[in-house]
Amino acid sequence: MPSGPFAHVCLLVKDLDQAIEDWTKILGVLDPKSLEERIVRYDDFSGGADTGMRWATFVANHSTEIQFIQPAPGTPLGERLEKKGEHVHHLCFTTDDVDGAMSKLRDAGLQLPGNGQVFNDQEMTWQRWSWVGPKSAHGVLIEVASPYESHNDGKWHHAPGKFANDKPTDAAE
Q1: Per-residue pLDDT tens digits for 75-103
Q2: Which of 53, 103, 130, 159 could bond to 147 as cystine, CB 3.0-4.6 Å?
Q3: pLDDT value at position 173?
Q4: Is 85 helix (H, G, I), strand (E, B) or coil?
C-alpha cells in the first residue's frame, strides 16, 4: 500500500511487458525500494466496456506507486491509446469512504463523469471507485478508490482504515 492517500499514477501503454522492463530500469536507479515487492499483475481484467485489459503495478509501501494499463484493441481505452499514444491515464487517491467523498465532490460542483457513479469490482468485491473529470482536475483524470495493499500472492487486498482521516464505511468487506 502506498504511504499516503495519493496511491498511484497510471500510464496507458501499448506493451505491458516492455513498460515493466523499462520502468524496472528506471526505478532501479531512481527508486530501488519499489522493486523489493512483487509486482501486482492481472493479465485479464475488465472494467465496463474495457475488457481484456492487462495491467501491472510496482508496489511502493513508501511512496506513490507506478501502474500500467495495456488495453485490448477495439475497446474504449484501446481506441484512446491509438488516438493519443501512450500517456498518463489517471492519478489515484484512496479513501475508506468513496461514496461520501464523491458526494462531497459533487456538492463542490466538480465535473464527475457519470455524475460520480461509484463502481464495484466483481472479483475484488471490497473495491469501490469513481472519477473526477479532467475538466475539474486541469487535464488529468482522478480516480477515487478504496484503500488497498499488496500481499505475497501478487494481488490487491483491502486495507481499510489505512489513513487516520478516513472514516470506515458500512459496506460489507
Answers
A1: 999 999 999 999 999 999 999 999 999 99
A2: 159
A3: 35
A4: coil
Residue 168: inside a domain: no
- For residues 158 and 126, the answer to whether their CB atoms sit within 8 Å is yes
Domain region containing 152: 6-158
CA–CA distances in Å: residue 145 to residues 13, 17, 125: 21, 25, 12
Q: How far is 58 from 35, CA to CA, in rounded Å? A: 7
Report yes or no on 24 lying in a domain.
yes
- Beta strand ranges found along the chain (DSSP E): 6-12, 40-47, 50-58, 65-70, 87-94, 119-120, 128-132, 141-145, 148-150, 156-158
For the chain, first and last CA: distance in Å?
A: 17
Q: In what order do the strands lie in the sheet with 50-58?
A: 40-47, 50-58, 65-70, 6-12, 87-94, 141-145, 128-132, 119-120
**Which set of grid coordinates corresponds to residue 131?**
472519477
Q: Which residues of the chain have pLDDT under 50?
A: 164-173
Q: Which three cell numbers, joined as nine digits, stand for 20? A: 515493466
What is this structure's pTM? 0.78
The domain that holds 104 is classified in CATH as 3.10.180.10
* Pairwise CA distance, residues 172 & 169, whole Å: 8
Contact 10, 142 (CB under 8 A): no
